[in-house]
Amino acid sequence: MSELALYPVAAFFVFNACHLARSTRDARNARSPRDGARGGWAGPGAATRYACYCTAFLGAALLLLAPPTVAGAARLLSLAGLLASPALLPVLLGDALHLCATGAIALLTVALASAEPARTAVRRQLGVLATVLALCAVLITAADPGVTSGDLTVAPAGRPYLAAYNALRTLYIAYRLTALLRQVARRARATARGHRRTGLRLLTLGLAVGLVWDAWGIDDVVDAATSGAQSAGEDSASAVLGLLCAALLAAGLSTALWPAVLTPVRGWLRAHRHYRSLTPLWTELHTVLPEIALAPARRLLPRRLPPRDAQFALYRRIIEIHDARLILRHHLDPRTPQWLTAAARRFPPPEALVAATAEAAALAAALERVAAGAVPAPAAPRAVPPAEPPCAALESEADRLVDLARVYTTSPAVAAVRMYARAARPLPS
Q1: Residue 373 per-residue DSSP state
Q2: How far apart are CA 338 and CA 344, in angstroms?
Q3: Burial class (CB in 10 A: 0-12, 13-18, 19+), 192
Q4: Any idea of the CA torsion for 385, 391, 395, 397, to the nearest 10 degrees?
Q5: How far is CA 64 from each of CA 216, 236, 238, 384, rounded to the nearest angstrom?
Q6: Fewer C-beta neighbours within 10 Å, C or N terminus of the chain?
Q7: H-helix or E-strand spanning residue 148
């Protein structure tokens, strides 16, 4: 595993923090005056804000603890001559940011536990975080570590302090993750099926992976107590756990985006599928009646690629098919019902497609009549219901025309009517 593996992990967290910050701002702008009077100490808005803090701190911590960052900071600080052990600064700052992210998790747990203001609980958690940070500062100062070949090293007298420092960090993070895991798991069980429940389950799984990620730090406690040395950055296994944890948390926290993203994508796919399904019918109509084509839109991409605006392309195609149906109303062959009756004896259509088969047969016979050069008859009897412009519901009209196109291209009864019309002599006008 490359040492650069931590940077994608940090990118996950930072991207998610930016999204949550935007969501928090939008929620704050839409919040009623009554909500503003409550102070935002708990509730969904506060939970989103605390999650934003957590992901931002984690992203910054991972960036600082990446081995290339530690080595680069050490070289810069050595050139400046600011510290005796310059590589120690990013490591200690990264650990502090990890603890701040854990404090944000504690606040998130408070926000999820109650929908009422919880100023006392929030202040208590901030006090606990400040105490842990102060104890860690005291212990790391007493340990007096240095950095040698990318590892933290202490004298034998400083081993207990370094081990206590790592143990305090690991236990505090594990305790807060466990508390949040219980809250999220309880809410996931009580939530109905849907994207929200899926998001809570992803968060539960991500927090469980975070516990494993935190437990991976026990080896630092053992190394500090036995040999007085530990890795200054994250190893490959820790990077893999961090990447998995980041992916699960980002997916879970972003479930609010899923409907907004999936709905347009699903609509584009459905419109594109209808557009392609209408292509065979439109091609035959356009071959005989090229005037139905509207002015083509300018395309920067080859026509073999799907249209960028599938909804607009589908609307154009429906309009052109309706124009062709309007023209063919004046070319309907009065013998079509007899031909269809004879064809239906050999190839009976399904009951649900009888009307679509009749319309498709009328269109096929009219197209053959136009192709043979028959003069339009304004008073020709109608073998097909009058064509109407597309209805307001584009989806329902597209579904109806897709059924018509499928019957037109696949029904053996329609093929038989087309054969009869092609073999018969066109009637005079």
Answers
A1: T
A2: 10
A3: exposed
A4: 10
A5: 19, 16, 15, 73
A6: C
A7: strand 146-148
Question: Tokens 């607009």 — which residue?
Answer: 312
Q: Which CA distances in Å does 206 have to 72, 163, 201, 243?
A: 31, 27, 8, 10
Residue 22 to residues 29, 47, 106: CA-CA distances in angstroms? 11, 14, 22
pTM recorded for the entire structure = 0.54
Q: How many other CB atoms are there within 10 angstroms of residue 261's CB atom?
A: 10
Could you give the C-alpha distances from 36 to 28, 47, 113, 120, in angstroms and in order?
8, 15, 20, 18
* Residue in 250, 257, 169, 255 with CA at minimum distance from that of residue 207: 250
For residue 181, count other CB atoms closer than 10 A to its CB: 20
Please name the residue that has the structure tokens 């437990």.
215
- Comparing CA positions, the residue from 116, 18, 5, 126 lying closest to residue 66 is 5
* Tokens 């007085």, located at residue: 228
Each residue's pLDDT tens digit in the chain (429 positions)?
445 555 665 666 666 666 556 655 555 555 444 444 344 555 566 777 777 777 778 777 777 777 677 667 666 655 544 444 555 777 788 888 888 888 888 888 887 775 445 678 888 888 999 999 999 888 888 888 876 766 777 888 888 888 898 889 889 989 988 988 888 888 888 888 777 788 788 888 888 888 888 888 787 788 788 887 776 555 667 767 766 776 777 677 666 555 655 677 778 888 888 888 998 888 888 888 888 887 654 444 445 556 767 888 888 889 999 888 888 888 888 888 888 888 888 888 888 888 889 999 898 888 888 887 766 655 544 444 444 444 446 778 888 898 999 999 898 988 898 888 888 766 554
CA 145 to chain centre: 45
Residue 367: closest CA among 332, 415, 337, 404: 332
Residue 172, judged by CB atoms within 10 A of its CB (0-12, 13-18, 19+), counts as buried
Number of helical H runs and strand E runs in the chain: 17, 3
